[in-house]
Amino acid sequence: MTHVTQSPLADNAAPPTAAERGFDAWGGFEAWARLLKVLLPSLGAMCVCDGDGRRIWASVEWAVDEAATQAVAAAATAAALTTTGEFPAAMRVVNADIAVYAFALPREPGWYGTVMLALAPTGSPSGPRALPYVHSLVAPALACWRGELSLRTALAERAHAAIAAAADVRARVAPLPVPADSAQDREPDEDADGDEIDHWLQRTMRRTGATLAALWVPERRLSRTLTPSGQPLAPAALQRAEQHLLAWVRLQQRTIVVNRIAPTATAEAAPYKILASPVHHRSGRVLGALAMFNPPSAADFPQTAVAAIEAAAKRLCGVIEAAHDPRTGLLTHDAFMREARRVFASGAPLGAHSVWYLDVDRMRALNEAFGMPAGDEVIAAVAACVQATLPADARCARLTGDRFAALLPNTNVDAALANAERVRRAFAARCGTAAPAPTLSIGVAPVVDVDEPLAHALAAAEDACKSAKALGGDRVAPAPERGPDGHSANLAVARALRRALAAGEPHLIAQPILPLRGNYGGALFEVLLRLPDERGELLAARKVLPVARACGLMRAVDRWVVRGVCALLGAHAQRVGAERACFTVNLDAESLLDESFVGFVEEQIAAERVPRGALGFEIAESVAARHPDATRRCIDALRGSGCRFALDHFGTGAGTLGILREFAVEALKIDGSIVRDALEDPRSAAMIKAIAQMATMLRLRTIAEHVESDALRSRIADLGVDYGQGFAVARAVPLRDLLGDLALFEASVDPRSRNDAPL
User: Any idea what DSSP says for residue 578?
Assistant: First the structure.
């Protein structure tokens, strides 16, 4: 917008404060950074702080945290108070290997601020470059910069003094009228359903005589436009105005009035009269801009309009801050509900939207190990990853503690799942080096047309999140599908499950687990449950087991599966044979805690004459960690009956080594969330290799879950893993059919190595 680029010292602009004049005087940071880079080629990053030590600009490479930045700036300020040399300086080494050199730029009275330069390490054993040496290189540029600051400050102060004097004369001659509050101008009711931001936009339009209002707060993901009729404007309509005005108010730190339209205005630089005021954070930092627009034929914005928009910007700052969590900047729970109502009232079908529910795994362990400040850093990291990954129109809230929610307008479940997976990966890349490493569990659900649609969708997403955590965490899980009437399909699944339990034999499939390096070891298979629904279609376990847990049916399901497996193994005992092939069943925590379960398994093995070593169990690492006594009791008892054991979802728990010391298992199944990232994430690959090496020392076998591509299969084998399971290894087949063709799988392994088989 060419007309916005007029001189900010318009005749009706509001004068800034003394602190703002100091900020105005800086400017041109990138140009000075380039000059300093020429004088000091080893310069890695640059930061500028004002006279109070607050950061006002930093290059994108600046990696020093806020506390260290303020500490170095304070050291330079202290040097300015105690020394008389030109550009008092200080040097600190931060982040173990980055040397930061800070130079104060004095002025009368006080100083302009501090310029900080981060230099990469030299690699020399003598340590970082000496402060006097760096000082001698950059002093000429700092002298030029201080001269320009002095000139800018003098010119700005004279111009603002003249503006203030003119405004004072106008005020004495004709006192500014203050519009009387009408019924429309009353303060909004805090308990009302109306939107307070829209209220203040409408009120400010009336008081300024504007025909269009806009509020932009990028870091709060807030972009709101409003016409006098109460209807919003398309976001793209003022996109260029938003970019220009945000840049201007951040630079000028004051209200800008544009009543003279540039003669070169075009369709891209729309001819508006503009009144724009910065929206400040309580710390003084500019959050965004409040802007009023009028056509060229309208009257000029008067000084009363300046007072009205500044008062509205101040009030809106309070409204915005109250609606956002102070630690993360995300919406509060109440504000999230209000924003959801706005989205649902936009006219789009409810089914077009999705929500997700996020919970941080192992948060309690991290707080206990490192204290609450470490937990606060994790919460901030979650918010940063969410803000950087969410679509522009998404709304995200911190519900409480380490739980978050997001509403993704006009986004189907598949796209929402992909978005949640990007958040999970971004967080893993950012926080994966911590110990214990925090991870994220995220549940995703669609919004459906029912009473209280947001509460309904959040409940479904929370259930999916809990299912993800029950499987070890660090994963994204969809909510169970919903029927056409909008109600959860859980009831239908529960009915189908109860019918199947009463009918007898379960529908079981088996997925082969094959060697990745050579053909050693015994034939291994994981037995999986499939449930026929009302239409005869088979439902996967991920849709059935959460319903079974919610209905308290997991003990019955586990016994049902064990009974069915034992019956088939006994019927094919001659083919299975003793110590030749092992079929493992997943064991839920409820069955572990059931003291009669061990006796039930022993009865089934004896009744069906199951060959020794043919039946095995997988226990999730997280379940074993939560219930060590019950896990130990089950393993010790059933090993005597020839059963084998593996720890499932290994690598996601906080007490991995302790678990290996406590339980007599034969194999470790590396969690799929680690395996699937092995091609792209060096840390996942390193973790897999470490687990494989540790297992070799302990004479345990390793199994990689979710091996879904040939490239991943080759990579996992190179890392030392023994067995693989997934589509790239072998697909699951009905257990009854597999037992009939068992010889085909036995031919793929070396019978001489069966004694070393993990299961």
Answer: T
Cβ-count burial of 481 within 10 angstroms (0-12 exposed, 13-18 middle, 19+ buried)? middle
pTM: 0.44
Q: In terms of Cα–Cα distance, which of 320, 313, 292 is closest to 221? A: 320
**Positions in the chain whose pLDDT score sits under 50:** 1-24, 167-194, 265-269, 483-487, 654, 751-758
Same domain, 109 and 244: no
Is the preceding omega at residue 436 within 30 degrees of 0, hence cis?
yes
118's enclosing H/E stretch is strand 111-119
Q: Output the six-digit token pair for 666.
A: 């034969």
- Residue 100 has φ and ψ, to the nearest 5°, of -110, 125
pLDDT of amino acid 722: 92
Q: How far apart are CA 245 and CA 233, in angstroms?
A: 17
Same domain, 446 and 464: yes
For residue 482, the 8-state DSSP code is: B
329-342 per-position pLDDT tens digit: 888 888 888 888 88
My answer on whether 500 and 459 are in the same domain is no
Q: How far apart are CA 718 and CA 702, in angstroms?
A: 13
Q: Give residues with Cβ within 8 angstroms of 498, minimum separation 6.
A: 553
CB–CB of 651/439 below 8 Å? no
* d(C-alpha 497, C-alpha 597), whole Å: 20
- Residue where a domain stops, chosen among 101, 134, 151: 151
CA–CA distance, 460 with 352 (Å, rounded to integer): 16
Overall domain count for the chain: 4
The confidence score (pLDDT) of residue 481 equals 61
